[in-house]
Automatic annotation (TrEMBL), chain B:
The keyword Lipid biosynthesis does not apply. GO terms for cellular component: plasma membrane. Residues 76-279 form the ABC transmembrane type-1 domain. It is a multi-pass membrane protein. The chain crosses the membrane at residues 12-37, 76-99, 111-131, 143-163, 184-206, 260-279. Belongs to the binding-protein-dependent transport system permease family. GO terms for biological process: transmembrane transport. It is found in: Cell membrane. This is LplC.
Length: 307, 294
């Protein structure tokens, strides 16, 4: 701030930039109405919402809905399904773009690299409904190509879409297919920043390809990996609502139902607004604790962290 | 980057690497090529030949069937409307908010930034949002698909960061020449931001075209369903594309279910595949602007 600015009072400075505040009006209204009012509406979790009474007249019930939810046997199923999907994603999906980026980084033919990149980004832009539809069309027992082949070779068909055992592998494969290529962008950006001289020095010291990757490439993108890991930890309870919802059916519900789909089912389709708000609120709060917690851990281990 | 290195193991590594990457890239696009081919194939061919990329019995029957009533066309119309109008709203809301936030000297800037960032950490959730939409009488209105998503906070911050990186000298020079604040935004900042704006236009447009869940939540009237919801009805819930079969010409031979489903998938994907080449030119840059500078 310059000396001249300090002479002005805050009001004068604001008046001078009045058009900036006019510009802010639509955005602020948006945030107020569609972000902050629903936050305040989350208080419904502590009320017994009756549509004909409205928000204000409905009675307060404190933690009653939470108590009911935790006592519900469904709670254990939802928690384990949610955590299991996140765990599988962490183990199988999270490393995939890193590996893919490392492999792409080893390609020296620029044209080949660009072609591959162009192709592997495509699925990211494909709507989840199409991804689920493709899965249905390919895996259905009624003329799906996978089952036609299974039948030719083994004389049997597998009902992939309704057997609980197949639900998780299908979800993970869909995620890898859709997002793995796109996920390489951020790692490739980090890799492009690595100093080439480091490799030259390593080669002089007799390091082979694997050793170069292990000792130079990986350490130089480790901070990117940690940041993305933190982001993902915060979303452990978010399993991609659309994807799960689209693949969910009454037959695989025991492994497929997660917090978000449950909120939709009891809230929107059964009208239990307060109870499902409580479920959603529980999920949001655990999510925040996870983000802040992992961020704190990352800082303790010497990484820069997010905040 | 060029790294001098030649050895037998290095060559083997390269060969395997190229093969693997090639296979991965094929896996990303092959399902579409098969679906496109399948949508033109006959019933018999689909079950007998199974895998092919060029159908022997080339037929438009599936497309004729799905366009035999206006059910699908109407949902395409809804999707186009939501995409065009929605993206225009997105750009207006994002730019008008990002520009003031990019001014370091703006009084109250930190408070405003925190106001934007906090909802990224905590949200009211699905039900309170639904009730807000209901209270605003937006249920069964296409505005419910446009207004609640008018700003994507991540995009807003990236655009703000981009504005912030523009050289301040330009601004000063323009001001000396008598340019107003709004003139500055319109005549100097926006033209300089074309690549970023193009990226986000396309990102926003793609997300409107792809969106499914908000329509599922807020739109009950089937005549207002966007394409993605209609697509799910036809492909996954196996509902008739034509909707009312009674009105159909009895001489119309119904093509196989599989090829109808494939044709619907093709219709839902084609716009993305058409804009993708334009999209692709910009997005890597756009994403980097956001991710690297933070």
């Amino acid at each position: 701030m310059t000396g001249k600015d300090q002479q002005h009072s805050i009001l004068t400075r604001m008046r001078r930039e009045k058009w900036m505040y006019v510009l802010l009006i639509p955005g602020l209204l948006y945030f107020l109405i569609f972000k902050y009012v629903p936050m305040w509406g989350a208080l419904l979790a502590f009320k017994n919402y009756q549509p004909f009474l409205g928000f204000f007249k409905s009675e307060w019930v404190g933690f009653e809905h939470f108590r009911v939810f935790f006592a519900n046997p469904e709670f254990g199923m939802l928690l384990s399904n949610t955590l299991m999907l996140s765990f599988l994603n962490m183990v199988f999906f999270f490393p995939a773009p890193i590996i893919l980026a490392l492999l792409l980084n080893e390609v020296r033919l620029a044209l080949f690299k660009r072609t591959i990149q162009t192709l592997i980004y495509v699925p990211h832009f494909i709507p989840m409904v199409i991804v689920a539809s493709l899965t249905y069309v390919f895996l259905t027992t009624e003329g799906g190509i996978v089952n036609e082949y299974l039948y030719k070779w083994t004389g049997q068909k597998i009902d992939f879409l309704s057997q609980p055992d197949w639900f998780r592998p299908i979800i993970i494969l869909q995620t890898i297919w859709k997002e793995c290529g796109w996920g390489t962008i951020i790692f490739l950006a980090a890799l492009a920043a690595v100093d080439v001289e480091q490799y030259e020095a390593a080669i002089m010291d007799g390091a082979n390809r694997w050793k170069q990757i292990w000792h130079i490439t990986l350490p130089s993108i480790s901070s990117t990996i940690v940041i993305l890991l933190i982001l993902r930890m915060g979303n452990v309870l978010d399993n991609g609502f659309e994807q799960i919802y689209l693949m969910l059916n009454p037959l695989n519900r025991s492994v497929a139902e997660v917090f978000d789909t449950y909120v939709y089912m009891v809230g929107i389709t059964q009208g239990a607004f307060s109870y499902s708000t409580a479920v959603g609120l529980f999920k949001s709060i655990v999510g925040i604790i996870l983000v802040l917690g992992t961020n704190w851990l990352a800082k303790r281990f010497g990484h820069s962290g997010l905040y | 980057m060029t790294r001098p290195y030649k050895s037998v193991s290095g060559t083997i590594f390269d060969a395997c690497n190229y093969l693997f990457l090639g296979a991965f890239a094929l896996a990303a696009v092959l399902p579409f090529l098969y679906i496109i081919a399948g949508s033109f194939a006959s019933d018999a061919e689909l079950t007998e030949r199974a895998v092919f990329l060029i159908p022997e019995t080339f037929t438009f029957a599936a497309y004729e069937y799905i366009f035999s009533t206006d059910t699908l066309l109407r949902s395409i119309g809804v999707s186009v409307f939501v995409t065009v109008v929605g993206t225009a709203f997105n750009l207006f809301f994002t730019v008008t908010m990002a520009y003031p936030l990019a001014r370091r000297a703006l009084v109250g800037r930190n408070l405003l930034l925190n106001l934007v960032i906090f909802p990224m950490l905590f949200s009211g959730g699905m039900i309170p949002m639904y009730l807000v939409i209901r209270e605003l009488h937006l249920l069964d209105s296409l505005w419910a698909l446009i207004l609640p998503g008018a700003i994507n906070s991540f995009n807003l911050i990236i655009v703000k960061n981009f504005f912030q990186e523009l050289p301040p000298e330009l601004e000063e020079a323009a001001k000396i020449d008598g340019c107003t604040d709004l003139g500055l935004l319109w005549k100097i900042v926006l033209p300089l931001s074309k690549p970023v704006l193009a990226t986000f236009t396309l990102f926003y447009a793609v997300s409107h075209w792809n969106s499914f869940f908000d329509a599922l939540l807020y739109i009950n009237d089937p005549s207002k369903w966007p394409l993605q919801v209609m697509l799910r009805q036809i492909v996954m819930l196996s509902q008739s594309a034509a909707g009312d079969l009674y009105n159909m010409d009895p001489s119309f031979v119904k093509p196989p279910d599989q090829s109808i489903k494939m044709a619907v998938i093709v219709v839902g994907t084609i716009p993305i595949l058409l804009v993708y080449p334009f999209l692709q030119k910009h997005f890597a840059k756009g994403v980097m602007i956001g991710s690297v500078k933070g």
